[in-house]
């Protein structure tokens, strides 16, 4: 989206304005109640058949919709075998998922460090899987979350302090929602470092991707993501707005250089990120051999979990539209909408000076 000069000036003026967005501070218990009212269960897949299949149908109810193709049949059979073994052993059905990195470091995407309503809704969604499975299998599920922050933070310029602060908030959300016995949080970095073959595999994959990547345009979609998602703290808000939203013909020499810098960084991050995505799978499967491996990004060889806010919760901020419809918007879009009827909701106990979510009601 390219904005006209007048729109850019108004946007910068809004950022500099000391006008306070109308808002309300709520205790976390009230926000938890709003979360539970908002994060409704999907339509569960009831039916007959063996307990194994009934459990799978409940889990599959949470699959992301609109995927290019369904789950690979070999993977599905593997999942069913693991569910069958858990039931035979009288254990919860085990799931592993890698997610929860940190808040995007670009202030045009989000200005928070702590997790917000998006992450709270996602934790609630994980707990809903347990609720659904327990309707068919009393022991429910056990979900291991592999926190991604320590892997990606150096590439994107995020401090260790910010990663720890973010994960502290995630753990508090699990506690607030009563999920301590369902959700276990582990570290993805520790998992890959325990795999003695990971580093060699990573370097081999990187060399292969560097040779094939440019020819096949493998990096293009990731370059677009990381052109935004990287540390931009050394640049002014005015320059960032001009580079991301202005027309290149209107850029000055400094802004041209900023664009080049962001592009070069984005390509380097994209190469590392895609290499890691390809290399990590073996480490996770071998570390969690009895778990169903899930993700929030589409991959035909993995169960793809649908999330309430559609976009990953670490990107942007949630707008609760008319009290029911969820939108995940970038901070810059909220800034453009300030003069409209938006109300900021602040969490008393979670970074209380930054909105936890917005609402139109």
Secondary-structure element order, as H and E? HEHHHEHEHHEHHHHHEEEEHEE
- Number of beta-strand segments: 10
Strand content: 5-15%
Class by alpha and beta content: alpha/beta
The end-to-end distance, rounded to whole angstroms, is 27 Å
- Largest β sheet strand count, sense and barrel closure: 5 strands, mixed
Domains (count): 1
Low-confidence stretches: none
Strand order of the largest sheet: 1-9-10-7-8
Per-chain topology:
Elements lengths: L4 H12 L6 E4 L1 H11 L12 H10 L12 H16 L4 E7 L17 H18 L6 E7 L1 H8 L3 H17 L6 E5 H6 L4 H19 L3 H9 L8 H9 L7 H35 L4 E4 L7 E2 L12 E5 L3 E5 L1 H6 L6 E5 L9 E3 L2
Parallel strand pairs: 1-9, 2-3, 2-5, 3-4, 5-6, 7-10
Antiparallel strand pairs: 7-8, 9-10
Describe it.
The chain has 361 residues and is of the alpha/beta class. It has one domain (5-359). 49% of the residues lie in helices and 13% in strands. The protein contains 13 helices and ten strands. The strands form two sheets. A five-stranded mixed sheet has the order 1-9-10-7-8. A five-stranded parallel sheet has the order 4-3-2-5-6. Strand 7 and strand 8 form a beta hairpin. Helix 3 crosses helix 4, helix 3 (51-60) runs antiparallel to helix 5 (117-134) and helix 10 (220-228) packs across helix 12. The longest helix has 35 residues, at 253-287.
């Amino acid at each position: 989206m390219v904005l006209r000069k007048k729109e850019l000036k108004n946007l910068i003026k809004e950022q500099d304005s000391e006008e306070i967005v109308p808002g309300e501070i709520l205790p976390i218990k009230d926000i938890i109640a709003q979360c539970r009212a908002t994060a409704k269960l999907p339509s569960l897949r009831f039916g007959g058949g063996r307990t194994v299949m009934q459990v799978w149908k409940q889990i599959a109810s949470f699959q992301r919709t609109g995927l290019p193709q369904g789950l690979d049949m070999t993977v599905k059979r593997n999942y069913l075998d693991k569910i069958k073994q858990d039931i035979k052993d009288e254990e919860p059905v085990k799931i592993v998922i890698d997610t929860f990195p940190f808040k995007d470091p670009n202030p045009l995407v989000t200005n928070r460090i702590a997790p917000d309503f998006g992450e709270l809704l996602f934790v609630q969604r994980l707990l809903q899987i347990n609720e659904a499975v327990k309707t068919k299998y009393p022991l429910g599920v056990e979900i291991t979350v592999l926190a991604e922050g320590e892997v990606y933070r150096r590439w994107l310029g995020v401090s260790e302090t910010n990663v720890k602060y973010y994960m502290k908030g995630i753990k508090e959300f699990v506690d607030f929602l009563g999920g301590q016995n369902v959700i276990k949080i582990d570290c993805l970095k520790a998992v890959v470092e325990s795999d003695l073959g990971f580093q060699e595999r990573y370097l081999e994959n990187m060399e292969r991707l560097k040779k094939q990547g440019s020819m096949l345009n493998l990096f293009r979609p990731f370059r677009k993501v990381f052109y935004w998602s990287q540390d931009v703290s050394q640049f002014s808000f005015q320059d960032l707005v001009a580079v991301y939203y202005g027309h290149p013909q209107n850029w000055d020499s400094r802004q041209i250089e900023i664009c080049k810098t962001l592009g070069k960084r984005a390509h380097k991050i994209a190469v590392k990120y895609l290499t890691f995505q390809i290399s990590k799978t073996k480490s996770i499967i071998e570390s969690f051999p009895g778990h169903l491996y899930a993700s929030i990004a589409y991959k035909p060889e993995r169960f793809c979990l649908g999330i309430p806010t559609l976009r990953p919760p670490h990107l942007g901020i949630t707008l609760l539209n008319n009290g029911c419809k969820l939108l995940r918007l970038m901070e810059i879009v909220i800034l453009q909408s300030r003069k409209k009827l938006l109300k900021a909701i602040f969490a008393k106990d979670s970074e209380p000076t930054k909105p936890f979510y917005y609402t139109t009601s």
